[in-house]
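The freezer alarm interrupted the setup, so I double-checked each line after restarting. Inputs confirmed:
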Amino acid sequence: MSANFRTAEDGRIDRSRPLGFRFDERSYQGFPGDTLASALLANGVHLVGRSFKYHRPRGILSAGADEPNALVAVRRDEARYTPNLRATQVELYQGLSAESQNRSPSLAFDIGAVNDRLSRFFPAGFYYKTFMWPRKAWERWYEPWIRAMAGLGRAPTLPDPDRYANRFAHCDVLVVGAGPAGLAAALSAAEAGARVILCDEQAEFGGSLLAESDATIEGKPAATWLAETVALLALKPRVTLLPRTTAFGYFAYNMVGLAERLTEHLAEPDPALPRERLWQVRAREVVLAAGAIERPLVFPGNDRPGVMLADATRTYLNRYGVKCGSRAVVVTAHDAAYRAALELHRAGVAIAAIADLRTAANGPLPEAARAAGLPVRPATTITGTGGRLRVTAASLAPLAAESDRRGAEPLTCDLVLMSGGFTPSVHLFSQSRGKLRFDGELAAYVPGHSVQQERSAGACRGVFGLAAALADGAAAGEAAARAAGFSAARARSFACHASGFGTGGIRSVLPNAHGAKAFVDFQNDVTADDLVLATREGFHSIEHVKRYTTTGMATDQGKTSNMNALGIVSEALGKPIPEIGLTTFRMPYTPVSFGILAGPSRDELFDPVRTTPIHDWATAHGAVFEDVGQWKRARYFPAPGEDMERAVARECRAVRQSTGIFDASTLGKIEVVGPDAVEFMNRIYVNAWSRLGAGRCRYGLVLREDGFIADDGVVGRLAENRFHVTTTTGGATRVLAQMEDYLQTEWPELEVWLTSVTEQWAVIAVQGPRSRAVLEGLVEGIDIASRAMPHMSVAEGRIRGVPTRLFRVSYTGELGFEVNVPADYGRAVWEEIFEAGQPHGITPYGTETMHVLRAEKGYIVVGQETDGTATPDDVGLTWAVGKTKPDFVGKRSLARPAMRAPGRKQLVGLLTEDPHFLLEEGAQILAAPNQKAPTKPLGHVTSSYRSATLGRTIALAMIAGGRDRMGEMLYVTTAERPVPAKVTSPVFYDPEGARLDAA
Amino acid sequence: MQRFSALSLIRHSLGGHLGWQPQWRSPEPKAEYDAVIVGAGGHGLGAAYYLAKEHGMRNIAVLEKGWLGGGNTGRNTTIIRSNYLYDESAALYDHALKLWENLSRELNYNVMFSQRGVMMLAHTVHDVQIFKRHVHANRANGVDNEWLTAEQAKEFCPPLHIGPGLRYPVLGAALQRRGGTARHDAVAWGYARAADALGVDIIQNCEVTAIRRGTAGAVEAVETSRGAIRTRKIGVSAAGNTSVVMAMAGLRMPLESYPLQALVSEPVKPMFPCVAMSNTIHAYISQSDKGELVIGAGMDAYVSYSQHGALHIPAQTLEAICELFPMFRRMRMLRNWGGIVDVTPDRSPILAKTEVAGLYVNCGWGTGGFKATPGAAHLLAWTIAKDEPHPINAPFTIERFRDGVVIDEAAAAAVSH
Amino acid sequence: MLLIVCPYCGERPEIEFSYGGEAHLVRPKDPASLGDAEWADYLYARSNPKGVHAERWRHTHGCARFFNALRDTLSDRFLATYRIGEQRPDLA
Amino acid sequence: MPPDRAALARLPAASRFILRGKPAAVTAAGNVFGIGLPEQACRAAVAADRAALWLGPDEWLLLAPESEGAELGATLARAMAGAAHSLVDVSHRQIAIEVSGPNAEAMLNAGCPLDLDPGAFPVGMCTRTVLAKAEIVLWRTMPLCFRVEVSRSFAAYVWRLLEGASREFGPQPKRCGE
Ligand SMILES: Cc1cc2nc3c(=O)[nH]c(=O)nc-3n(C[C@H](O)[C@H](O)[C@H](O)COP(=O)(O)OP(=O)(O)OC[C@H]3O[C@@H](n4cnc5c(N)ncnc54)[C@H](O)[C@@H]3O)c2cc1C
Ligand SMILES: NC(=O)c1ccc[n+]([C@@H]2O[C@H](COP(=O)([O-])OP(=O)(O)OC[C@H]3O[C@@H](n4cnc5c(N)ncnc54)[C@H](O)[C@@H]3O)[C@@H](O)[C@H]2O)c1
Ligand SMILES: Cc1cc2nc3c(=O)[nH]c(=O)nc-3n(C[C@H](O)[C@H](O)[C@H](O)COP(=O)(O)O)c2cc1C
Ligand SMILES: [Zn+2]
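Predicted 3D structure, all chains:
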């Protein structure tokens, strides 16, 4: 099978270095410069895949990004397994290993192909009409079958080890596409001094020039001009050249997304290089020079391996030195196919016939073909092809006899060239939200009104032919540079000789092709009949036709098929194409990897890991951490052999009996400073601040304007004009943002400023009856005796020489202090306190113990007791609300009827009848034990812990009318049956607060 | 209506599929209808179907400015579940879920409802609390939801990476087995076909441009791009465009419309057996019948009607997806798109009568109304026909915002400590 | 990613900003004097127009200032940005 | 960090103040600080080893050597005593990283969305901005040298991100000016 279809010379491959590669377990040879597709064709391999639905054998249709058929998986190793790659875009390297997809057991013999036999039962949308009975069979049988039949390749199964990178970039002119138009544009813009980025999805710049056989530019062969031009551009410091880089998306404000592939073509990638890089380019001006895509013809058997786009075979010949077959039948509606026929003929491929669908074929190219002795047959159509895994014959028939397929003459061949003309690539223009215009003369959609700073040039706007494309590109480059402010820009002009491009085209099914398998969308197996069926069933909008038939929805997004589909629908509905409209072009232009979009974000770079100055100490002392927002917080410090429950019990006892030390550095901190500080605090917080003296603290509560609790924290008044505000760990950013919002937009007259100091201060909580004793010897310049420094006060001084803001506050119910020191000193001061605490049995504790201790005291955690629907009164904090204040954020909302209605959920304690039964947080509370669902629960458990102090379990709950239910027995859901629990006060421990001063 | 079945499929296959009739007509608008529904999404088409089927109203029209099903119905990630926290929501969404379970047969249209299970991942202690609360609340409400350990979650969804070593390891998950997905387009088409068969006029390319009210204030007619249509009852079910339509009747709504993006991968063979969602790291994913991974991306930050969004939104989503499923880094995005979602202050819908007589509204479904389609349609029909809400949608009024009653599913998941 | 002209810093990419919702909704001087319906209007009712929208942005990761903008919600293009306290520009 | 490609360096500790306030206070502060606080948006003013960075229309970051901090704070406060202002010591809130060398722009652009071309971001320009998921203050101190100020708990993230971005550039010159 491994025949040699390589030409003797020519092409851009490096024949001196043969490369070995594998496809489906067979070994082949190719050369640097090959794609997998060209190398396979050089070995005579056309059959490369199976279609999506009918599992029909498929070959290589095109030579580029538009390829719908030749999808393969490339496997470097299992972790680098990549499915659904276009063989036409996979660059060959030594050792490349590729496999075909969607076939079993083998590509040549695929049992899925029975679908093809049964295909008449599977027209467009068949699954909507059946598989409804019996109900269970859908999920057990039908659905798994549909799923197994669909899907192309298989997903990789191991984590991808490669790296991906990101780059934001700016330029004056971004040029997309480095064909003649793009090169000319880049040259004009760069010579004007503009910062230029030129990208092309292919490995080499040049676009269609790479397949030029005889053209000259500026008197030089096209290839020479190309090399010189690229070299010239590369020398310019303000020009960035990006080969292997696809512009995949055009976003608002001239942001274009580029996907650069750095290593995929290398046999042994440099580990320092990322596999791919996302470029987010903000361009002042964009030049789109994306070229055009050749259209297939829609006729029966047009999907047979060996049926190819005419111009693609030129590319294989001229660029890769590959003859796609030995005897070709050409079918065309455009002159360009003659050029392909001529060049193939010159290379030794026999041309069995050129069937031209047009009644006359008279342009220079057809004339040249005739002159070369090629059998030109005007007014001739193709009615079918023969062969199983490769085309062996093509049947031609005169158009006059179109109603009679028997008049067809089968011609033996191993290659069919087809050309329905060219479709300008308007993908990116359309993504830019520019309006397309239907050009009647070209019978194509071309860019119309632009809405962003962009312009199209060359074939992508219907300007075909080398000379025209060069001139158009140069003009576009000039215009772009001018628009970007480079007024000296000049358009280069290029003397150019090339064979003409010709005219022609068709966008519909060929005569006589209905009722047979004439494919429009090759990848999704959509036939002309499917499209007509959709219109018959009332799907008249092209959007409906697309979705019902799935035409244009495959991985090629209809690059080769959408125009033909439009034409067919237009005929079926009897409406001209422009009235049918188009489906929406969306990004990406070609598929982009998830990895490139995720970029470097993974593991620790997925989200910043925020740690406190004491983190390393905690790690060294065996702490188990929990994630709280982006922070890592020590949850508990297990001694050897302890689980969380035992560690927490020990930590709790230590705090209650002697003293504990806790890292509270993650608390949000805001300094509120200025003459109007107190006024500002009065407006933001529910509390009244005017009477709080300097040196004192207060528990503060912030609401949202809708009256629900937003955050809380202790606030210390450092001086008349200065407050040290603390917030919850998770609330820090939100509270500051809310404060700034009101300050800047509602009360700009207030002379007060807010500064985040969360990270300025490390906060070390020392809590427990021995805490004063521990700190006494360390603190300088502050009298921490109870009278001098009562509960809820703050003082500035030093601790072991380090400046401190010392708070006497307690979230545990015990005598306690919070030592604030500048963050760099946090660890050292922590260690000093820990050292000084040794005689007192000081014990580090974590967030879990902190939670238990505060729950024993009935203190809420915002976000745990509250859920965005709780008012101050709901959680028993009415006392905090400044009664006489005329207004504060959220006050008006608290007066709304439902906010004051009886029966709201209120914070209470719950004690299970069985003192050792631990309720689950989130468990629901029912009035009776044996209610059948659906019940209307009275509320839920918000917090639930084992209290070592009380020797039993405790829970907090939000219960409808809870404060009126004291002593009531209610029932709490568990995984099994509800358990009884009694409603109590939420304060389980030291309700008088005596311990705050116990030492 | 032509019945669909395996048999009819075979029969028509033998006839070259020439015998299929249009699934719906393309009628000209009449001068007057008993009721007009604005918006031919799943909700609007479904409401018309239930009005005709259950309330005997046959002279009704659904007006659609574009093509039917082309709004959010045609652009959502198709996740269906009912494990909502609050009683009111659970009742509403479970009403829908029960209708889903028989919808294909009811409509004689295979909507490919696939109860593959919806798994919501917990990554922090706080998440665990929230989701356990959901589990308990749902069970009390008769809605299935169960707690899985991280290992059980991995077993249920083998591609899932649960850590350790994960930036946010998976600590467990809440699983609703009855949840799943359905084929979005089929829902719109199935309702359209069934409604059409009952005489409903579905009028596409017909944009409502004004609402006429009589001297007493009640609605009298709509003006459209295809002329005026008299009617006494208007049900607005215009999703992202609701504010614009309601402004025609002089109402300012508690709504904002945001772009919400989604994307699909290239299709691959079946390997993702369920729906997985993570609120904490913002990702949700399932695999469709065709093999694509269907992935919900986030909302863009600002009000917009453009059905386009910025690149950083899907990029952030894919970061999260690759974190949870690191073998998907080499999968490729095939297409990305946006819809316009109408968001209320408490993230719960409004499905109610309005202060304007004869004007009913169904909106505010935001990022999650596909799953409600049959339920919302059913209840909207009820509310229009009886001029009063069904007990299930009675809490979902506009006035709840005035009174301070919120059904805040979003706040219930807020993180703060 | 939008490009937004901060009135203080100039053109900056969207990811430096936070969106702040509809602009010119002035918090009533004396909320207590408002009826429930009026208060709900202030809190919740939004014009949410298809077309020109006056909205607030904050250059959070820049100068940290709030400012106002006029933007067409159909095309997502900014028509003007202006400082807090300044009149909404007349585009006509 | 392998020393041969240290285009990244952690800078020594410094005194830092955030100054907000009315014009009178700002002028007074400039007088004693020794550098008039820049009024032009996004510009830094430097004199000897002190710098004042415009962060917002009434917000400046003042940088001085670590040893001068305590006294400087007192001096500034005294000078502004009569005028409304807010002076907050944030010396420990953030740390500084230097990014330098011919690839400095490219490394920063791995996460920073701004145009860092000298034409758009000249020497002396400074601004708060983002570096991927961290907020930073970015200041171009020399043509090939940037100072990045970052909140301390984000520093490890920023470092790792930049280090990852530098990998493909191979060995780098050690520090600017060296
Ligand atoms: C990306 C994305 C993902 C989502 N994912 C999910 C999900 O996983 N699960 C889930 O449950 N929900 C999801 N949703 C939400 C869900 O799609 C919607 O809530 C739901 O589809 C709304 O249906 P609808 O029928 O109300 O609206 P639509 O389908 O939007 O229908 C409204 C119709 O009204 C028409 N209309 C508007 N104005 C006028 C006018 N003036 N005149 C005439 N017609 C008009 C529109 O053209 C439109 O067709 C998602 C949404 C999006 C955008
Ligand atoms: N199919 C064909 O081969 C074909 C069709 C029409 C015209 N032509 C000839 O091509 C010339 C027109 O030149 P041109 O410069 O307009 O087109 P071109 O085809 O020569 O170049 C377009 C280039 O854009 C690249 N490209 C397309 N989309 C891209 C994207 N999204 N991102 C990155 N790169 C992308 C392609 O890889 C190609 O290199 C004329 O000589 C004409 O005769 C060729
Ligand atoms: C669940 C779901 C799956 C989809 N799968 C595909 C697909 O396989 N291929 C495709 O091209 N588009 C797919 N789409 C996207 C549609 O093509 C289209 O983008 C979407 O309906 C929005 O419409 P618009 O892009 O025309 O605005 C899918 C959409 C949804 C909602
Ligand atoms: Zn700014």
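Quick read of the result. Residues B 38-44, 63-66, 70-73, 75-79, 207-208, 237-239, 241, 245, 260-262, 296, 339, 341, 365, 367-371 surround flavin-adenine dinucleotide (ligand 1) (CB under 6 Å).
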